[in-house]
Amino acid sequence: MAKAKVNSVSRGKRYSTKEKAEILTFVDRHNAENGRGGAAAASREYNVSQLTIGNWLKDAGSPSPRRKKTDADISRVLKRLGDIHKAMAKQEEELDKLRKEYAALKSKL
User: Fold this and answer.
1) Cα–Cα distance measured from residue 19 to residue 23, given in angstroms and rounded to the nearest whole number
2) Global pTM?
3) Which residue of 62, 64, 68, 92 is 20 to 30 Å from 50, comparing CA positions?
4) How many other C-beta atoms can be found within 10 angstroms of the C-beta atom of residue 17?
5) Would you say 27 and 53 are in contact if contact means Cβ atoms under 8 Å apart?
């Protein structure tokens, strides 16, 4: 019976802790200076995929960017929107009356 051929598949480069620390330090420094884009810059600089760097950041417990919380209360904003809508409807009614009156006067000329 023939033996099955076992392919030794390379699973990619393994990075030492020192290399990871150097790359993550680069990411943090770049983000501190520029606000964002550290993973992309490190990917280009060190030829490491952004996905790998992102996984390292997640494993290291780096905080991910959070959405800004709005200070506005939703119910207050909705109430204000309703008030504005009512005021606009009232103004449109007045404008319609004026247009009708204008058209009637113009037709008398």
Assistant:
1) 6
2) 0.49
3) 68
4) 7
5) yes
**What span, in angstroms and rounded, lies between the C-alpha atoms of 29 and 46?**
15
What is the rounded average pLDDT of the residues 25-52? 90
Q: Which two tokens stand for residue 18?
A: 């020192």
Q: CA-based diameter of the chain, in Å? A: 109
Residue 37 exposure: Cα atoms within 13 Å on the Cβ side:
7
Q: Are 24 and 49 in contact (CB under 8 A)?
A: no
Residue 73 — left, alpha, or beta (φ > 0 → left; ψ -120 to 50 → alpha)?
A: beta
Place of tokens 């207050």: 76
Q: Token pair for residue 53?
A: 């760097």
